[in-house]
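New to this. Please check both lines:
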Amino acid sequence: MRPEELLNTLEDLTDDEFEGFKWHLQQGEVLASRPTIKKSRLQTAKRRDTVDLMVHTYTLPGAVEVTRKVLERICRNDLLQSLSASSEQQGTNEHV
């Protein structure tokens, strides 16, 4: 998985869904033991900035896992499935 694939997923969110996505990144219960991202860092962050913040905060595999959890919370199972499929396909390509 590459950061571009996370960006593509976030670009499929409406503006309201994206704001909700960022809100969930500030909530500890969604992220389990992972750190939250400060509101001030996310407030004006565009989609690309948000991906960068997530990768910096959680590493790429962690950012993918956080994205999956948040997509579940905002009821975007269609994006969750496409992200999972992309991740599985990437894993298969790495083993070839």
About this structure: Residues 47-73 form the longest helix (27 residues). The radius of gyration is 13 Å. The chain has one domain: 3-94. The CA atoms of residues 3 and 52 lie 8 Å apart.
